[in-house]
Amino acid sequence: MPLHTPESLLQSLGSQPIGDPAELRARLVPQLKAYLDQGRSEAEGRLRESQNGLACARDLCEAMDRLVRIVHDAVVLHLYPADNPSSGERLAVVATGGYGRGALAPGSDVDLLFLLPYKQTAWSESVVEAMLYVLWDLKLKVGHATRSVEDCLRESKADMTIRTSLLEARFLFGDRELFDNLTKRFDLEIVATSAPEFVDAKLKERDARVAKAGASRYLVEPNVKDGKGGLRDLNTLFWIAKYVYRVREPEELVKAGLFTREELDLFARCEEFLWRVRCHLHFETGRAEERLTFDLQRALAERLGFAARGGLSSVERFMKAYFLIAKDVGDLTAIVCSELEARQTKRRPMLDRMFGRFRRRRGGALVGEDFTIDNNRINVACEEAFERDPVNLIRLFWLADRHNLAIHPDATRLATRSLKLIGQSLRNDPEANGLFLDIITSRNAPEIVLRHMNEAGVLGRFVPDFGRIVAMMQFNMYHHYTVDEHLIRSVGVLTEIETGQFGHEHPLVNRIFPSIRNRRALYVAVFLHDIAKGRPEDHSEAGAVIARKLGPRFGLTDAETDTVAWLIQHHLLMSNTAQSRDLSDPATIKSFAEVVQTMERLKLLLVLTVADIRAVGPGTWTGWKGQLLRNLYQETEVILGGGAVDLARSERVRLAQEQLRAELPDWSEAEFEAYAARHMPAYWLKTDETRRAKQARFLQESDKAGRTVTTAYETDQFRGVTELTVLSPDHPRLLAIVTGACAAAGGNIVDAQIFTTTDGMALDTIVLSRAFDRDEDELRRAERVAKAIERALKGEVRIADLVDGKRPAKERSKAFHVPPEVTIDNSLSSRQTVIEVSGLDRPGLLYDLTTALGKLNLNIASAHIVTFGEKAVDVFYVTDLTGTKVTHAGRQSTVRRALLDVFKGEDTQAHQRRSA
Questions:
Q1: Are 488 and 524 within 8 A, CB to CB?
Q2: Residues 315, 320, 322: CA angle, nearest 5 degrees
Q3: Which DSSP category does 5 fall into?
Q4: 23, 155, 253, 522: which has the highest count of C-beta atoms within 10 A?
Q5: Distance CA 594, CA 35 (A)
Q6: Are 150 and 190 in contact (CB under 8 A)?
Q7: CB neighbours of residue 368 within 10 Å
Q8: Beta strands in 346-398 (DSSP E)
Q9: How many CB atoms lie within 10 A of CB 114?
Q10: For residues 660 and 666, is the Cβ–Cβ distance under 8 A?
Q11: Could you give the CA distance from residue 216 to residue 230 in angstroms, rounded to a whole number?
């Protein structure tokens, strides 16, 4: 049947009163629902065609206005007519909150105020109730209040949320005099007398909201509405402006002197873009989704018309555009705060509380005549400061760092408007580069100053290679921030290391830092290590080339430049080696040491690696990673220091056995000799002293109890892991069963060592990442995992079914494409073949891989598991059943093909597992 317009719906109901609320809803709601669906469909079509988000939001708002009006008219006409209304039977229907602003997203709440002259009457109560029932039947999310004018004024004094809602009140229909009375009294009695209070409350509210959504505006899964740089920030700016400057429309802010015309245009561009993203987001999901998650970013990029270009994918280009808008919102925030401070409507802030952590130096005048101290912050003395001497664009930030002064927003604003002054002449100016190098290598707070330079646009103009990665997102689940934010945070972590913070988390780097000779090179390398991200070539190699160009420009010596370039070229080497190689294999250490060559480079690379990992995002650094890095450092230190690298294997085995004998004074000689004979040489060479002693007692207790399948577990809070020891009769699929049981019980394996005794038993050490902070909670989980392993090894459960039951129907990682790769290498170990498998991670992947290796009759000596967000990199040290490497080309091809098949369709794999 043809759809009615809202106006025609009234006519379709007829002229006779219906009387029954249920009958009215039954006749009205289906037609209104059809109208609403059609309106949203048409709005989405116009949005896709015009790509104007604000127009879409206003269209949806206008359609809602008409719908609310027709609901009111139908209720009054057919249910509660007031032919001769009394003075108390007056009602104004008012849009408030977001709806009051005249813009609605597809999934937004509809906030209504039913405004009364006095207390509620039976008539007004009935009308409001009937209207709400219709709106609820339409599945609308309605926020509503029924208040008199006096109620509104009284409650807005006590509640800042109500006050803000009334600030944006918009008359819809009804008694206009009531509404005008409210707005007039609200302006005179509330707004005119409380501007400082309102501003302070709104800024505190913003801080709390941003902290909850994620403190950085460069989080790679931003909240479009509530995140830093999102729509709510723009709303807050306008609320404050309306309250303080007493304006009604954004255009009035130019007349009020708050914004220039260009800045008002920027405000409009930011608002339209954020509304565009938000409307597309709601249409795409069919709900009020505000977070740009990875699985939605690709769809949004397509909806908004972004295509791959310049080495960036379509989704990366879209997210870069988003983050640049978020940065612009931050600039507008600083402008408003500056003007408010000038009007003394808010308390004087510290631009960044982190300044308080550092000693404040005072004394001596600021350099030159172009800068002043304004309200305890550095400001330009005149509008011509940068034109007179463009070096001042760098000197401003240098002075802020040198004197521990926050930068006045007016100075930042002028710097942003003066970016055209930063050209080749300034970039090659020795003084400007000297000041910039001082900032990077400052012992004060370089992270803060570099971030201010970046937000002002100065950093990207002064170092164009840095400008290329500003707001650049890496479309993966590993990196939490944009590339520029990651680099700046890395410098901040480096400062924390140098000042001795977090020593309990990484004691080695804190201990060795004072002995580092190339401090300047280290800071520059950390600042530049990902400078070439987003280019077609390998970013480590390309970054080294950039470093060789920038080093001399910054004023580094040739030796320092070489060091920076080497560090950038190899900045992933230590992390990759520590996490994905067998550190007990001499070939691993020897190969790593051949690249590093000197102790100074080893120290620099360790510190850079720690700073890089810590700056990736919350939770990325773990004690387990720290332990692996320390092990690699200490093993390499022996080689570089000329230690006994080539000590005979037999001698090392003998020393290990002597150490263990000293740890077991209660054992007889016969007992110890029998135990020592159970282990192959590899066991004595690979396990550390503490683990050898624990496992000796574990095996002894198991033998006495007659247990052939048993487990033990313990937590290690410092390393952030839980270790499981598994004893079982050996067979090729043993590790597959163990990994499957761990996956089914929620255990995330990060490392595994597998040893076979001479009497046919397997002694495996499985390392799980920690899931709980409290030991008692973690031990309960470890017990659950251990029991699952024992049941699986005893054949009490079918492990394939357990693993399949844990696979979610839809995973977040499906948003990503990670081409699977299998590398087989016989040069990385003197005794085993090293198989490295990388691809899209998923629950049960490690089980699938180890099952495939078991079917290939390969013995796994150790497994090293690394995940980089959605990407898994699993490395297996294997031999065939005769204990030799896999060298035959045909055999290698079979192995490679079987492992690649693991990444094919889930349904096919599940069928193969069940039929195995």
A1: no
A2: 95
A3: P
A4: 522
A5: 73
A6: no
A7: 14
A8: 371-374, 377-380
A9: 21
A10: no
A11: 11
Whose tokens are 């830093």? That residue is 228
Q: Cβ-count burial of 62 within 10 angstroms (0-12 exposed, 13-18 middle, 19+ buried)? A: middle
Query: Can you say whether the dihedral through the CA atoms of 558, 564, 598, 520 is positive or negative?
Result: positive
The pLDDT value recorded for residue 622 is 76
Backbone angles phi, psi at 416, to 5 degrees: -65, -35
What residues contact residue 484 under an 8 Å CB cut-off, 6+ apart?
A: 218, 454, 459, 460, 466, 469, 470, 471, 472
| 860 vs 875: CA distance, rounded Å | 10
Q: Which residue has the tokens 């499985």?
A: 766
Sign of CA pseudo-dihedral 644, 648, 649, 653: negative
Label residue 19 left, alpha or beta by phi (over 0 means left) and psi (-120 to 50 means alpha).
left
Tokens of 575: 């992390």
Q: What is the DSSP letter of 736?
A: H
In whole angstroms, give the CA distance from residue 449 to residue 472: 20
Closest CA to 478 of 845, 813, 230: 813
Q: Encode pLDDT of 236-294 as tens digits.
A: 888 888 888 888 788 888 888 888 888 889 999 999 999 999 999 999 999 999 998 88
Within 10 angstroms of residue 333's Cβ, the number of other Cβ atoms is 20
Question: Which long-range contacts does 817-823 make (Cβ < 8 Å, 24+ apart)?
Answer: 818/870, 818/871, 820/899, 820/900, 820/902, 820/903, 822/895, 822/896, 822/899, 822/900
Reading the block at residue 64, the tokens are 């809602």
pLDDT surpassing 50 at residue 79: yes
User: Can you tell me whether residue 218 is helix, strand or coil?
Assistant: coil
Angle of CA points 689, 830, 882, to nearest 5°: 95
Strands 142-148 and 110-116: parallel
Q: Which two tokens stand for residue 669?
A: 């000689």
CB contact at 8 A, 807 and 860 = no
Identify whether the C-beta of residue 429 lies closer than 8 Å to the C-beta of residue 391.
Answer: yes
Residue 754 CB partners (closer than 8 Å, separation 6+): 734, 735, 762, 763, 764, 859, 860, 861, 862, 863
The residue among 355 and 739 whose pLDDT is bigger is 739
Instruction: Give, as one character, the DSSP assignment of residue 357.
Output: G
Q: What is the per-residue pLDDT across 147-204, written as a single tens digit (0 to 9) for each?
A: 999 999 999 999 998 999 999 999 999 999 999 999 999 999 999 888 888 888 888 8
Residues 6+ apart with CB under 8 A from 151: none
- DSSP for 60-104, written as a single string: HHHHHHHHHHHHHHHHHHHT---SS--TT---EEEE-HHHHTT--
Longest dimension (CA), the chain: 110
pLDDT per residue over 23-61, tens digit each?
A: 889 889 999 999 999 999 999 999 999 999 999 999 999
Q: SS3 sequence, 633-694?
A: HHHHHHHHCCCCCCCCHHHHHHHHHHHHHHHCCCCCHHHHHHHHHCCCHHHHHHCCHHHHHH
- Tell me the average pLDDT across 868-874: 80
Q: pLDDT tens-digit profile of 195-216? A: 888 888 888 887 777 666 555 5
Count of residues for the chain? 916
Residue with tokens 């309605």: 142
pTM: 0.76
Distance of alpha carbon 602 from alpha carbon 803, whole angstroms: 42
State the CB neighbour count (10 A cutoff) for residue 217.
25
Q: How much is the pLDDT for 912?
A: 47
The residues pairing with 223 across neighbouring beta strands, listed in sequence order, are: 291
Amino acid letter, residue 880:
D
Q: What single DSSP character describes residue 223?
A: B
Query: How many percent of the chain have pLDDT more than 90?
Result: 50
Q: Tell which phi-psi region holds residue 608, choosing left (phi > 0), alpha (psi between -120 and 50) or beta.
A: alpha
Inform me whether the pLDDT recorded for 2 exceeds 50: no
